[in-house]
Request: fold
Amino acid sequence: MFSFDSDYTEGAHPRILELLTETNFEQTDVYGEDVYSNRAAELIRQHIGKKDAGVHFISGGTQTNLIAISAFLRPHEAVISAETGHIEEHETGAIEATGHKVVTIPTDDGKLRPELIQPVLTAHHFEHMVKPRMVYISNATELGTIYSKDEITALHTFCRESDLLLFCDGARIGMALTAPGADLTMAHLAAHTDAFYIGGTKNGALIGEALVITNTALNTDMRYLIKQRGALLAKGRVLGLQFLALFESNLFYDLAQHANDTADIIRKAITESGFSQLCDSPTNQLFPVLPNSLIEKLQQDFVFRVIQKTDETHSCIRIVTSWATQEAGAEAFAEALAKS
Amino acid sequence: MFSFDSDYTEGAHPRILELLTETNFEQTDVYGEDVYSNRAAELIRQHIGKKDAGVHFISGGTQTNLIAISAFLRPHEAVISAETGHIEEHETGAIEATGHKVVTIPTDDGKLRPELIQPVLTAHHFEHMVKPRMVYISNATELGTIYSKDEITALHTFCRESDLLLFCDGARIGMALTAPGADLTMAHLAAHTDAFYIGGTKNGALIGEALVITNTALNTDMRYLIKQRGALLAKGRVLGLQFLALFESNLFYDLAQHANDTADIIRKAITESGFSQLCDSPTNQLFPVLPNSLIEKLQQDFVFRVIQKTDETHSCIRIVTSWATQEAGAEAFAEALAKS
Amino acid sequence: MFSFDSDYTEGAHPRILELLTETNFEQTDVYGEDVYSNRAAELIRQHIGKKDAGVHFISGGTQTNLIAISAFLRPHEAVISAETGHIEEHETGAIEATGHKVVTIPTDDGKLRPELIQPVLTAHHFEHMVKPRMVYISNATELGTIYSKDEITALHTFCRESDLLLFCDGARIGMALTAPGADLTMAHLAAHTDAFYIGGTKNGALIGEALVITNTALNTDMRYLIKQRGALLAKGRVLGLQFLALFESNLFYDLAQHANDTADIIRKAITESGFSQLCDSPTNQLFPVLPNSLIEKLQQDFVFRVIQKTDETHSCIRIVTSWATQEAGAEAFAEALAKS
Amino acid sequence: MFSFDSDYTEGAHPRILELLTETNFEQTDVYGEDVYSNRAAELIRQHIGKKDAGVHFISGGTQTNLIAISAFLRPHEAVISAETGHIEEHETGAIEATGHKVVTIPTDDGKLRPELIQPVLTAHHFEHMVKPRMVYISNATELGTIYSKDEITALHTFCRESDLLLFCDGARIGMALTAPGADLTMAHLAAHTDAFYIGGTKNGALIGEALVITNTALNTDMRYLIKQRGALLAKGRVLGLQFLALFESNLFYDLAQHANDTADIIRKAITESGFSQLCDSPTNQLFPVLPNSLIEKLQQDFVFRVIQKTDETHSCIRIVTSWATQEAGAEAFAEALAKS
Reply:
């Protein structure tokens, strides 16, 4: 039984466990001020070419989102998100729990563009409505789609002109940057956002996201804000060491590439079998629309989620691959589709 | 150079890393619904004799405190804490950030007693003041002191009679229960509080606290509340596996015992050298008051924090031992005191 | 120049100022516990036939909404509103500022119905999303439409069955209950909601809304919650006296009737002139769609808001009448339409 | 039966009701942008000599405090208050409900001084504690005491040097400025704080406080923040007109002077009868310590609050006079004391 349920069903890449084990008995500074966290932060700064960036390691994505957004906004300021954005859909009102409204925009593909955002700014014209002050995007999006270099540049320019901060949820940034056809780099993203985060949990880490704040004014007192939300781990090195493992070599990208490659095997089978996707995802989350009868058959051998009915006889399922997905599994699924 | 800086300067007990490694490639359910988290929760329920208790694994202590307190209280309700309580002193206003006031009580030894709490209830008599609704205690306290079985029972009875919830911060509960002279058991604590947590981080885990809710009415929708605060880890098994390692054998208590035993070596030296402690701690945090000249000398060989000046020529320092403290280190410190 | 800008451009009905003046030098109890507030609350309880209802006088509508909603919900619980609902559109994120998400539903006419709400409940199926726990409706709605008796009954039944609270924003409840064709009574509304409020500000008062809580369990500690949000006025009698003036006679309904009657003059002219409304409002807010050229002409003699462009040559305007609107003004506007 | 219960037992000064009545049928702009609110704000700006100050009229004191404090602070920043401060003692956790901790300082007389504040800054030295960022004072204090010109200057200098905002709760600022021996002016206060408010409710208004923000950077988007907390009254003129009445002549100070003068009659009697006060209040709140037997006797003819037992046979009571207190009442009380 192969599982395509999510990219967090396994533990960590072995190099991470190895590094945790190797350094286990060293005594280090605490609360993220240890030598390993510092080294990992420095590697990330070098990698993105922003030597002044604030880099903070935080356990998970929802926590990172709520900390960043509530740290950057005044009480009446709101964040703009696609309707499918993680902060809107799957964080149990975490942003609102910090006092901020999420203003949503319907999209076809989970991506925000200036022309979609402008009407929201126009509509929010006075003090009886929240003041949109930040744009939240995900890359890859929750639908698996990705932003091109030009799209990020355009969003950034628009946000600057509109007095909006631009924040990118990078829970699956590894997959976004290594997807077929992707031309965006992490350095370009860093140079064209105010802050973003690098997702570890879904790309080989046990836990951990790296919040990178390139707009240094926003970095003021961030350790206070991280602590206040309960996110300053006593043994902060646990997070730093994982990012050290991911960034001391090309491991971060290699793992993401593997996730994409195994997804590619399945994607091709979807196309070749004449099926379509909900929208065109080049990353490790696929959303094929399949006949219900086929879905039932596939469920005998594979684990995946049925997302929604699309008509009387078809439904959309979600297939997720990861750094740990075996090619044999992807091929078995592809074969099952081909035989259908 | 031996460090007595804190009980979280090392990584994890080897059994924990071993278990993480052994199970690393298994695919499990996510968000804490995996088999290992379930097994660990079940072990804890059996251990405390409360088969209906809610057990939730959360990354750290501040996060556990803020989730529990904000989940259990209505907006106008407040939590009562000793002035030295962690939620008051060292959580950067985490409780207030969820909207709740912490009402504080000065104490000599960090412990709350009914006769200290009653005047607070009397003073908060009308709707122009918050309504005290919960008592927060720490065991061991932030000063290293512990509660006896009778003291817990008395607090519980008082809280019941006064319509107050009783919540125990157990960041160092292992040390409290294994301290010389301790007569409290975890089962007794569980039976005489509404909720408490079992500290993993300071007792051999990489990260992780187990929030135990024995007042089952309070457990309603807790997974929503944990998620909303960003604390529902995608790879929840990372937490569950650690508590499995701690509770599948006597490991949890053995580690705490070791921390207390090494502290005992130093405690005896303090007494024998004629020095006093700030207050009488039987656990792994010691607060000796020493001559400044001696402190300077000790700093050449040992790492520890200077907490406060007590007079012109003396200061109070904090010595913390842990499951990983080497006896040789404790003995070296004891010897240095003896020679002074 | 007649103004149809809003129903709060004037001060108060003279009876209110008279009563404030008559009682001005009496010394009364404070914070809303005075004899006049008590008497007004009692009149309201009698009027709705709910002798145990909690009745609280609060300065304004946004404040009433935020107090009620945040008092009734736990942190992870959300309120469902029409997209046009006041809490969603025009309260600057007041509800989110108390920590709660507003889940919105698009509607044609500003009204919620069970068949619109059910899909929201179905979609919110697990702890990664907020838990819908309250339905917020406005009557009259922000589009001027009203609920019938049967519609309120059906909503109430649905909410009971779905474990949802039902709360009605009654900023313009007077107009809703006296509209042509209305069959709903305040007693029926009270019997079929958990709480609602009676709008004073837009119906002849200087300030003030009466929050009525008929689900008495929800009334627990409400004075604490009102105080905490800064809404417990020291001279609470100022609010109580106004509702006394409105409910000691039929004044509350008479004023609303007048607002509706003057709107009716204009509504008929809209129809007779062959124009349509955005949606069919029987109350004191009208939304006619008019040629831009006509709008410009009308602006020379009348004050009103242009709400939105509907096509290249037409726009929707908002006309609001009130207890203080002079018939001559309404007739002048009607005439101007007729001549167009 | 004369009442000295509080300074808000009556309605408004007649000039206020007169002005409300005179202008009642005028149609004005709404939400505080009417001509009267603008005129009143302008009068206040002229009065304090700060032509750029933001002036916002808000219903009550708790609301003003919570709006100002939550608008000015980032989430991890805290406000420092005397233990007797209104925000700490009698606002039901309103500040904490906006997410901010109140850090308290014990005082003898309700007044903060640099030497009391400095140790708090020293103690809050790292990110595990909130960051003190604002000093909250009341003038007159909750104990009736007042700040001199030099004391305000010294506090201001200290706050500037320490990167602290200075905010003054002026619920009874009228009485503070007209007290015997007072040398502070409102202009001096305005020049030496970042914001303060002028209390109307306790000095002749029906409702209303004027929040004055002289640090103009803090005034950004204040109307959003006022609206979000439910404090932007639709008929905002109701507040503006009252402050117009108070500041178009010397009425504001005359009313406060009257309150102080009638208190003076009683104060002298306290002293002449050989009784002491809890602390030395020169304003309209007196806290004499009297024999319990005398208190019982006085209660037959006068209404006042018993604040606390001071020893077995004595208690402290609170006597409050106001703009509406009759001299005959004060004299009757003085006489009763003299006869004791």
